[in-house]
């Protein structure tokens, strides 16, 4: 394979740093008048009391977010981990070997100019495959769950398709595929953006859709190494999505 330029990772849809807006001439917020220590402050009456009550109501609203996330975790768990279905827990060592095998399968048949990882989970195997093949890497967001507390019926593309795909041979990488809805949407988006050729690759094929390349084919529910544990208050704990799933600890 000819020498290529060094891998360049460009994540699309990354949030921009917050800008500081001028507050000149702006009215002071009612919260500024609330004492720092409310324990010793007398109970406010009249309009001031109403303002403080409104502020209290506003700050209490985000408490519903954990409940929404918990419901979403339960929904995913019920769908993926049905009774009687095998569970395959992937550790980092096995993930590395599967990524190596996937890169070799692709290299024997296809010479991509760049690799596109489907964010979020497809970015990790995508970047690994791109590094092994020594080709440029980019990402694009296609998701049923992005910016929502519920799972959409169909995936959607968020942000722009990388402009670098025009007239290029592109390999799309995702971590798993079942129905193929996400990969079909990715292929369509890249072709519309001017890609000369598009092929698909996944670490795990778990359903009816057949990508061009796969590392492994299985009917089991997959637990990925970067997803099994999450950080809570600075400590790694079992992802709530897998709470109660047999064989995961």
Account of the 3D structure:
The protein has 249 residues and is of the alpha/beta class. It starts with 8 loop residues before the first strand and ends in an 11-residue tail after the last strand. α3 crosses α4 (123-133). It is globular. It contains 5 helices and 11 strands. The longest helix is centred in the N-terminal third of the chain and has 17 residues, at 64-80.
Summarize the structure.
By secondary structure, the protein is α/β, with parallel strands linked by helices. The protein has helices at residues 46-60, 64-80, 92-107, 123-133, 181-192, and strands spanning 9-10, 87-89, 114-119, 136-143, 156-158, 169-177, 197-205, 213-217, 221-223, 229-232, 235-238.
- Poorly predicted ranges (pLDDT <50, ≥5 residues)? 5-63
Strand content: 15-25%
Q: Report, as a whole number of angstroms, the end-to-end distance.
A: 43 Å
Percent helix, as a range, is: 25-40%
Mean pLDDT: 77
- The SS-based structural class is alpha/beta
| Largest beta-sheet details | 7 strands, mixed
The secondary-structure element order is EHHEHEHEEEHEEEEE
Label the overall shape.
Answer: globular
The helix count comes to 5
Radius of gyration: 24 Å
**Quick one: how many beta strands?**
11
Helices and strands in order:
Layout (H helix, E strand, L loop, with lengths): L8 E2 L35 H15 L3 H17 L6 E3 L2 H16 L6 E6 L3 H11 L2 E8 L12 E3 L10 E9 L3 H12 L4 E9 L7 E5 L3 E3 L5 E4 L2 E4 L11
């Amino acid at each position: 394979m000819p020498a290529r330029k060094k891998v360049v990772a460009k994540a699309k849809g990354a949030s921009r740093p917050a800008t500081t807006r001028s507050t000149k001439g702006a009215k002071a917020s009612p919260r500024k008048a609330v004492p720092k220590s409310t324990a010793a402050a007398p109970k406010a009456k009249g309009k001031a009391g109403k303002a403080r009550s409104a502020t209290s109501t506003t700050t209490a609203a985000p408490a519903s977010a954990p409940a929404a996330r918990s419901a979403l975790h339960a929904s995913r768990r019920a769908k993926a981990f049905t009774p009687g279905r095998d569970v395959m827990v992937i550790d980092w060592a096995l993930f590395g070997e599967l990524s190596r095998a996937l890169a070799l399968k692709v290299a024997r048949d296809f010479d991509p100019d760049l690799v596109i990882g489907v964010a979020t989970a497809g970015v990790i195997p995508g970047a690994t495959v791109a590094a092994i093949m020594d080709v440029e890497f980019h990402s694009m967001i296609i998701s049923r769950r992005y910016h929502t507390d519920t799972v959409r019926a169909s995936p959607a593309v968020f942000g722009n398709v990388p402009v670098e795909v025009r007239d290029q041979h592109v390999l799309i990488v995702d971590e798993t595929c079942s129905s193929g809805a996400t990969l079909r949407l990715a292929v369509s988006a890249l072709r519309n953006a001017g890609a000369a050729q598009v092929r698909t690759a996944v670490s795990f094929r778990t359903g009816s859709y057949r990508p061009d390349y796969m590392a492994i084919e299985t009917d089991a529910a997959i637990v990925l190494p970067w997803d099994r544990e999450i950080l809570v208050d600075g400590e790694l704990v079992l992802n709530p999505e897998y709470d109660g799933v047999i064989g995961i600890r």
